[in-house]
Write a sequence for this structure.
């Protein structure tokens, strides 16, 4: 079991995830941000499942290992879908949704194929290693796509405050996770990202919840302010 600090962060992350869903329903934005809500509902369910398996089998059990890596890959895929839905919102007026959808499918298949090719020759634990490699690569792809999306926001002079803040938070989240994976790979020690990853898991739903509560869909930024948003 995690220590008191780790357990507290874990509980807070789950509470913040549920908070965004509740805020979305209360502000009548659940369907508009359906993919984001679906991702956080799935994340909450995974968190409960991990705690149940951890409590019954322990952190070193095969049950927990397989559930952790596969659920992490599933959550990464769900977040990838949520990111693509933001592309559709930003590019919706350009009628580019169909191109975005097919581009995302090909990119996802390419990332999965690359991840499989990396691990197939080098490990006896192919299944868990593939799940880990897929998650890591999708986070990197997500980071690149988020910054491309931010470039589109600036280029198109997107002024919807909610949407801009949600994308900015996602960019910070992906950047933090990419740094976490890099530190883990360079150091080879799990302790490096022991608290960083859970804290990032708290940051994203909390920032999204505050955005939903603070702004309406009608709120707009002054176009010039987009160039001064911290990056």
């Amino acid at each position: 079991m995690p220590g008191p600090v780790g357990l507290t962060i874990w509980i807070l992350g789950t509470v913040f995830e549920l908070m965004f869903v509740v805020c979305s329903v209360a502000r009548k934005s659940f369907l508009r941000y359906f993919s984001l809500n679906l991702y956080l509902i799935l994340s909450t369910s995974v968190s409960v499942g991990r705690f149940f398996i951890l409590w019954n089998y322990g952190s070193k059990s095969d049950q927990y290992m397989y559930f952790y890596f596969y659920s992490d890959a599933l959550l990464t895929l769900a977040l990838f879908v949520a990111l693509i839905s933001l592309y559709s919102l930003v590019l919706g007026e350009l009628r580019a949704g169909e191109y975005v959808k097919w581009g995302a499918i090909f990119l996802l298949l390419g990332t999965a194929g690359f991840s499989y090719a990396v691990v197939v020759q080098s490990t006896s634990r192919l299944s868990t290693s593939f799940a880990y490699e897929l998650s890591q690569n999708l986070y990197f792809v997500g980071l690149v796509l988020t910054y491309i999306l931010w470039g589109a926001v600036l280029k198109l002079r997107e002024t919807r405050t909610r949407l801009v803040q949600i994308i900015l938070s996602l960019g910070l989240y992906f950047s933090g996770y990419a740094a976490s994976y890099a530190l883990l790979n360079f150091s080879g020690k799990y302790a490096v990202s022991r608290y960083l990853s859970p804290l990032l898991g708290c940051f994203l739903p909390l920032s999204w919840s505050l955005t939903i509560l603070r702004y309406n869909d009608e709120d707009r930024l002054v176009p010039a302010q987009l160039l001064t948003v911290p990056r």
Observations:
- The chain is about 75% helix and 0% strand.
- Residues 4-228 form a domain with the Rhopdopsin 7-helix transmembrane proteins fold (CATH 1.20.1070).
- The first helix runs from residue 4 to 26.
